[in-house]
Amino acid sequence: MNPYIQKIQQEIEPLRQEIINHKVYGVINNTDSLKIFMQYHVFAVWDFMSLLKSLQNNLTCTSVPWFPVGSADTRFLINEIVVGEESDVDQDGVRTSHFELYLNAMKQANANSSIIETFIKELKQHKNLEMAFELANVPNAARDFVRFTFQTINTGKPHLQAATFTFGREDLIPNMFHSIINDIDKMFPDSISIFKYYLERHIEVDGGHHSHLALEMTENLCCTDDQYWKEATESTIASLKSRIALWDGVYDEIISCSK
């Protein structure tokens, strides 16, 4: 294994374990608590796509006239990930993005999708994150999470974006959560079957093939530049802390609503 990759994985392991063992999973035990989780988590699904497209914009030519940009190997890696994330298949084999699949899962579960949908509508119109947050009444924990992602995007530094994408957004959902979802699905198969499929697809695609592609992309961008790897490590640590704060927000709302 690349020694730089090995070092960054060692440094972030305590934070990864904190996320995997977060207390939020222990309070998701029915459809009501799962709906709250989804209302927050959907923002992470959406801004994951934004982070991905920022990488594509920086690492390939997405304008006309076309010119070759950077390494063809890196272009291949990011384009393959984009194809899988932006135009995968749903449970019926119909082409869809992972974000749209998640929205469908929310609607099947009767989770409140109006906040994320209003947010996207207002962001399209006004091109202003803070205004969209306010107009959609986005929860504070979700706002902070998206803000961090866009701070990373706005650095314009592909090696930071790639590191955050690779190490900060890889599969961080524990087996315990999948067991919980399987149990809920047995009781309410008509409510969360799409969400169950989303998680399974997430493991199969994002946690497997795409994870390897993302690692290779990050290696290509950081090469053997010590400063790049130092910055990549710092950005990844910050992104994992951001995820912990998001899960804290979900936990607090679930506990508040259960009182």
Description:
The chain has 11 helices and 2 strands, in the order αααββαααααααα. By secondary structure, it is mostly helical. It has a two-stranded antiparallel ribbon with strand order 1-2.
Topology of this structure?
Elements lengths: L2 H18 L10 H29 L12 H15 L1 E2 L5 E2 L1 H12 L4 H13 L2 H8 L3 H15 L3 H10 L7 H13 L1 H34 L3 H33 L1
Antiparallel strand pairs: 1-2
Helix pairs in contact: 1-11, 2-3, 2-4, 2-7, 2-8, 2-11, 3-10, 4-10, 5-6, 7-11, 8-10, 8-11, 9-10
Rounded average pLDDT: 92
In which range does the helix fraction lie? over 70%
**What is the straight-line distance between the termini?**
49 Å
- Biggest sheet details: 2 strands, antiparallel
- Widest sheet: strand ordering: 1-2
Any idea what the shape is? Answer: globular
Looking at the chains present, what oligomeric state does this protein adopt? single chain
- Radius of gyration over all CA atoms, rounded: 18 Å
Which sequence of SSEs, written as H and E, runs from N to C?
HHHEEHHHHHHHH
| Number of continuous helical runs | 11
Uncertain stretches: none
